[in-house]
Amino acid sequence: MEIENVLPTEIEKRSFEIITEELEQEGIVLPEIQAPITKRCIHTSADFDYAKNLVYSEHAVEKALEAIRGGASIVTDTQMGRSGINKKRLAQYGGQVYCFMSDEDVAQAAKKNGTTRAVASMKKACELNEKLIFAIGNAPTALIHLYELIKDGRIRPELVIGVPVGFVNVVQSKELILTLEDTPYIVARGRKGGSNIAACICNALIYML
Amino acid sequence: MEIENVLPTEIEKRSFEIITEELEQEGIVLPEIQAPITKRCIHTSADFDYAKNLVYSEHAVEKALEAIRGGASIVTDTQMGRSGINKKRLAQYGGQVYCFMSDEDVAQAAKKNGTTRAVASMKKACELNEKLIFAIGNAPTALIHLYELIKDGRIRPELVIGVPVGFVNVVQSKELILTLEDTPYIVARGRKGGSNIAACICNALIYML
């Protein structure tokens, strides 16, 4: 297998062409507005399962784009997710990216209440007085607590990106989000996801603007 | 499907138990010294493909552990990978984590030479005068250039973690590393991988010490 001679600037374009071709070969047709997001998840993971496991609530993408355009910030549950989001591009619309997981007060609150730091960091996010998108790529406990905060009317996110990965309560946490009726969401059903997928969905949205 | 009542501190342990059970059900037996690394990759991605696609050169794990114990540093090709590596634990053995991708001189060198920044950042790593582990989770161009630098005798890594993800020259770049005879490697054969997998392999090694 020879090294393909592709210009550095062309690599991403060529990758998306290959993804598009292979989806067509599989007979998979993605809704047009979701396609850039789903394809970027496949691009990030080389895993075509995302063509099937991503669930978008009605008009989730349109609402998310409007929120970002209006200056929404992003709260994520890992420093790795925060690191992967294009903060410079997001800042052009007025938003920033928060991750409270390493904060001293979050560690203390978690210890005191016997929760995960992820839960404590969701509580802390409730204190932010701005439009928020939640991008949860790691901790199902964060997603479960976010669900409770939404149900209690304590927070009203512009979008919930629910893509924690793993084996304990991950599937359950996502199914909870799928029951929400007034909250826009993008959820990777099943076990798969990750901080990389959370960041990639945020970036796909930002790049659509 | 009910939320399982698992203590925060027990979630990772329970996850690894589930992974172990499911590997057994599939009849997959991992070599003992590789198991903590392969299982952590599955834990990070919920993707059991890693049980089959990870290729370890002979004694790669033993050599890597010795290198980290001896103070080796890690060079990675994304800030996200750098962010995911447990730098505090690595520092206990004397190593640190480098990522040169955002450096101004790297951007200039890449522009001047018409390469990717990933290639320029590998060149910069050659100037480091210490034991190095390379953890490449994103850029096949980085891995290809690293291969060339090794073949030219300009660098002699303690370990190459070759897990870029994607569709253009990714498979090829990994096959090149698999031809190396005197360089320890851990490679995810095929298209899959990522910054998360690169970080996770580093952490698995650190946690084995």
TrEMBL record, chains A, B:
<dbReference type="InterPro" id="IPR003722">
    <property type="entry name" value="Cbl_synth_CobH/CbiC"/>
</dbReference>
<protein>
    <submittedName>
        <fullName>Precorrin-8X methylmutase</fullName>
        <ecNumber>5.4.99.61</ecNumber>
    </submittedName>
</protein>
<keyword id="KW-0169">Cobalamin biosynthesis</keyword>
<comment type="similarity">
    <text>Belongs to the CobH/CbiC family.</text>
</comment>
<dbReference type="GO" id="GO:0009236">
    <property type="term" value="P:cobalamin biosynthetic process"/>
</dbReference>
<feature type="domain" description="Cobalamin biosynthesis precorrin-8X methylmutase CobH/CbiC">
    <location>
        <begin position="10"/>
        <end position="208"/>
    </location>
</feature>
<dbReference type="Pfam" id="PF02570">
    <property type="entry name" value="CbiC"/>
</dbReference>
<keyword id="KW-0413">Isomerase</keyword>
<comment type="pathway">
    <text>Cofactor biosynthesis; adenosylcobalamin biosynthesis.</text>
</comment>
<dbReference type="GO" id="GO:0016993">
    <property type="term" value="F:precorrin-8X methylmutase activity"/>
</dbReference>
<dbReference type="InterPro" id="IPR036588">
    <property type="entry name" value="CobH/CbiC_sf"/>
</dbReference>
